[in-house]
Amino acid sequence: MKKILSFILLSAIFVSCGNRCEFTNAQFETPGCLRGMPINATFLDEVSWDIPHQNWGVEEWDKDFRAMRDMGINTVVLIRAGLGRWIAAPFESILATEDVYYPPVDLVEMFLCLADKYDMAFYFGMYDSGKYWHIGDYMKEIDLNIKLIDEVWAKYGHHKSFQGWYLSQEVSRRTKNMTKIYAEVGRHAKAVSGNLPTMVSPYIHGVKTDQVMWGDKATTVSEHEYEWNEILSNLEGVVDILAFQDGQVDYHELYDYLVVNKKLADKYGMKCWTNFESFDRDMPIRFLPIKWEKLLLKMDMARRAGMDGAITFEFSHFMSPNSEYSQAGHLYDRYCEHFGIKNKWKNR
Amino acid sequence: MKKILSFILLSAIFVSCGNRCEFTNAQFETPGCLRGMPINATFLDEVSWDIPHQNWGVEEWDKDFRAMRDMGINTVVLIRAGLGRWIAAPFESILATEDVYYPPVDLVEMFLCLADKYDMAFYFGMYDSGKYWHIGDYMKEIDLNIKLIDEVWAKYGHHKSFQGWYLSQEVSRRTKNMTKIYAEVGRHAKAVSGNLPTMVSPYIHGVKTDQVMWGDKATTVSEHEYEWNEILSNLEGVVDILAFQDGQVDYHELYDYLVVNKKLADKYGMKCWTNFESFDRDMPIRFLPIKWEKLLLKMDMARRAGMDGAITFEFSHFMSPNSEYSQAGHLYDRYCEHFGIKNKWKNR
Amino acid sequence: MKKILSFILLSAIFVSCGNRCEFTNAQFETPGCLRGMPINATFLDEVSWDIPHQNWGVEEWDKDFRAMRDMGINTVVLIRAGLGRWIAAPFESILATEDVYYPPVDLVEMFLCLADKYDMAFYFGMYDSGKYWHIGDYMKEIDLNIKLIDEVWAKYGHHKSFQGWYLSQEVSRRTKNMTKIYAEVGRHAKAVSGNLPTMVSPYIHGVKTDQVMWGDKATTVSEHEYEWNEILSNLEGVVDILAFQDGQVDYHELYDYLVVNKKLADKYGMKCWTNFESFDRDMPIRFLPIKWEKLLLKMDMARRAGMDGAITFEFSHFMSPNSEYSQAGHLYDRYCEHFGIKNKWKNR
Predict the structure, then answer these.
(1) Strands, E, within chain B: which ranges?
(2) Taking residues C136-148, what's their average pLDDT?
(3) For a 10 Å CB count at each end of chain B, is N or C smaller?
(4) What is the pLDDT of residues C12-68, one digit of tens each?
């Protein structure tokens, strides 16, 4: 018994005292080190398109919401209520007409409970059929989502954390009638909910999009401005937060796009957020957490461009101390150091 | 000394009492949640084709066999004795004629010792030349395996866990003479071993096969039935367990295939197992553990189709609490919860 | 309090005594198991081309240098001072003329401090513009690096661990004027530093190069010998260590190449090292740690071919007990067992 106790104590001594590192990161920081803007929101990518699943239950999610809050995140955005046959909760309006799989968990209720607990705002992401709007049947996409909004607001609207809507379909250009979908769905969501804010997160038609990598031509900054000026002019009063994804252009091109995006958002009375991609698009493994240096570079540009807020795609895989990709935990460490946030997750 | 002790105790208190999660997964389970059939077997993918290696020694394997047993697995199947130049043990019959690399570990002996220890059945997977049968030289593939069976039975047959054979070559259609290989090799394996059971695990020529993704046409359910009726008619009495892989068709197509497979197996006096793929084929990272929701969907279909058993490809990378892909451990957690299995691996 | 103490003690008893594995790896080692040559050096791949980043700070790096040393590594080689727009430290000579991103950390100073601490030799890798030499403007590549060498030697040359230079541009054949870059840059580096040794690490134009996988023809062993005889004849006295990468040819082809490389190095008065790739090129995930059996096979060939030393690409992702790819830790375990090295990192 004594021997075991000694063993434990000696282990503790070894861990806390042995093999100390006498250096600190501050010693090696460069004099002109960039200065980022902080992240206030994250997507919740549970109905995923291309990111493998972590298989978390509520305990793991509870822990992760705590890690988010500790880092300064106060808003979580459900990436979508469903994609094709997969849905995030047993929505009766969708089960009634669509050929979807019955889900095992009510993720919407779970995320709302956790957001309530941690005093966060929850934004509900719409259902993306993955087909109707692709083949031009945009009315079907609108109808489904209007019924879904009614159902969801009735069932979950009582949660104090239910504070916004996310129009989840992702486009980079004037995709056939997408503006109409955003407008109709956004208008209805605001109408039923006492004007809760709505968010969109389009992408830039840049060199790192699949389309351009497969041969399409990237748009220039001014083409981007021209096209999005037109799109946004139709969304005034319907979209409150414009949060372009920041990963489809090259790093040295990003700042100019951020400036344009901010200008456009201001023009149409929207908040301009940036969507920091926290995964690395430049590696053969698609995708693992981004290098801190790259994230910092983008955070510095966003700060200089005067963005009104920042969401990341996404915390739980790519920035979390709880992520199954443990590189993410070290990204969290670097982030906390940069902003002088006390890191409660250092010893994990 | 006292200070350190306090530190340890306080840490323990913090870990066990602080930051509690007041929610349970049961609270968020949907009312109509699907109900799966359990898994009774796994492949051991040590001579791998496309899954990176975990570099485990016997200690790590011992631990993993224990985790398998704790989850209800009672059968382990060596995926193959060798593939091309790589072999699982220093088989003299293969070293004598084939240009293979001399292996560092006798994996067959190791797996048999562990299966003995944990009261499991071990199935020995054949050598896959990776060439002879591809170029039509099927007699060479048969000869090599017949000699290998003799050697292996003489050397390892005394283990109580040596309880079956796995015909490891994988096909989806009437590949040239594969039926003859199965028949000859299976017959010989049964003959030398007092009629121990034999297993095959073919795949369905579906939308997620490499062949179809590269332009070939997927077979329909009735084409599949027609072709496999002919193949299996030549394997009556030689193959005891038919375990089709379940991942090359889309989820909504799977049930119909399972029903056909069961019908065919019954017709030819075979047990019909399903081979649950526990990795995710739909992601750009090829491959990480599957989402629990997807596995459950397949397990529900297998239950409804009346399968006689279920093997998974495979436990140690994709479902194990010891896997280097830690998502796998959470899949294990979800699995245990679903079946009400006491999870001894929760705190890992 | 007492209850918690009991809990801790019981946990300790359980961990140290329960579920013991009565087997050892030695029991299952094959009688003719191959015998490798040890690794004495590693690259530091912080300005990476294709390996995702681990986001380590100095604490994590300190720990990793210790793990290297414990395994027998005495030399670390910075893979490159920069690649395109990304640089490893705020080099004034590069910032002055190149459109690069300002870095957050002085990695050169950090690695030198750690190499000093752990009594290792540090080799400085050159800046790779990623463009000038590709488009034939080799003088620009040379000029940049000559200025960089002067700056770096003045700023960091006082470190006792600064013991060599690495010519970082990677080629497999007579790429336009690369010999001139190696020669000019290498000569200058040696001149300013009192003749410190220089290293190159080319690759073989084999079946696993991107070029050949995209349709180019692999060179034969004799073509390789012919071409590199000519290249090396121009580098006599400028390059001290020739360390070909060992992963672009098939395993069964490697030995013949090693023999030729050794012969060529001897002819031109160079040390012949091998560069053990410790990642697996044969898997769909590009890249995770290599299987121990494969590494051992290459280490055995290198020993038999009489190599003078061995560097690996690279320890921290693919062989380290601290790697975020935990398979790497098990590779470390296997390596230590093979060489009878006391493994201080077994319990991690």
Answers:
(1) 41-44, 75-78, 82-83, 86-87, 121-125, 127-128, 162-167, 198-200, 241-245, 271-277, 309-313
(2) 96
(3) N
(4) 544 444 689 999 999 999 999 999 999 999 999 999 999 999 999 999 999 999 999
Asked whether the ipTM of the predicted complex exceeds the cut of 0.90, the reply is yes
What is the structure's pLDDT at B19?
Answer: 85
Both tokens assigned to B310: 């279920």
Round to whole Å and give the CA distance between B197 and A108. Answer: 48
Under 8 Å between Cβ of A284 and A323: no
- The token pair at B219 is 């077979």
pLDDT of residue C245: 98
Global pTM reads 0.95
A63 touches chain B (CB under 8 A): yes
Six token digits for residue A127: 């259902």
CA-CA-CA-CA dihedral for C114, C119, C121, C124, to nearest 10 = 20
pLDDT in tens, A87-110: 999 999 999 999 999 999 999 999
How near does any CA of chain A get to the CA of B97, in Å?
Answer: 39
pLDDT digits (tens, 9 = 90+) for A183-241: 999 999 999 999 999 999 999 999 999 999 999 999 999 999 999 999 999 999 999 99
Q: Which residues of chain B are under the pLDDT cut of 50?
A: 1, 13-17
pLDDT (tens digit, 9 = 90+) per residue, A262-286?
A: 999 999 999 999 999 999 999 999 9
List all residues 6 or more positions away from A172 whose beta carbon is below 8 Å from its beta carbon. A202, A203, A204, A205, A209, A211, A219, A248
Which tens digits make up the pLDDT trace of C246-256? 999 999 999 99
Q: Which of C55, C56, C98 to mutate to test the interface with A (most CBs of A within 10 A)?
A: C55
Tell which A residues from 309 to 338 touch B, by Cβ distance under 8 Å. 324
- Report the SS3 class of residue A243: strand
- Partner B contacted by C32 (CB < 8 A): yes
Q: Is the dihedral of CA A209, A210, A213, A214 positive or negative?
A: negative
- Those residues whose C-beta lies under 8 Å from the C-beta of residue C214, and which sit 6 or more positions away, are none
Tokens 């560092």 belong to residue:
B104
Once rounded to an integer, what is the mean pLDDT over residues C97-103? 98
Closest to B12 (Cβ–Cβ): which among C7, C251, C331? C7
CA–CA dist C63, C65 (Å, integer): 6
Task: Give the per-residue pLDDT at A16.
Answer: 47
**Contact between chains at A292 and C55 (C-beta distance less than 8 A):** yes
Beta strands in chain C (DSSP E): 41-44, 75-78, 82-83, 86-87, 121-125, 127-128, 162-167, 198-200, 241-245, 271-277, 309-313
Tokens matching residue B217: 């046409």
For residue C340, give the H/E element and its range. Answer: none
Number of H helices, E strands in chain C: 13, 11
Sign, Cα dihedral of C125, C130, C134, C140: negative
| Pairs of residues, one from chain A and one from chain B, whose beta carbons lie less than 8 Å apart | 109
User: What residues does A310 pair with on adjacent strands?
Assistant: A274
Q: Is the peptide bond before A91 cis (omega within 30 degrees of 0)?
A: no
Q: How far apart are the first and last CA of chain A?
A: 28
pLDDT class of A174 with cuts at 50, 70, 90: confident
With a CB cutoff of 8 Å and minimum separation 6, the contacts of A24 are C58
Q: Mind listing the domains of chain A with CATH numbers?
A: 35-339 (3.20.20.80)
How far apart are alpha carbons B297 and A45 in whole angstroms? 20
How far is Cα of residue C308 from the mean position of the Cα atoms in its chain? Answer: 15
pLDDT tens for residues B35-81? 999 999 999 999 999 999 999 999 999 999 999 999 999 999 999 99
Per-residue model confidence (pLDDT) at position C17: 47
In sequence order, the 6+-apart residues with CB closer than 8 A to the CB of C105 are: A25, A28, A29, A30, A293, C89
Torsion of CA C232, C235, C237, C239, to 10 degrees: -90
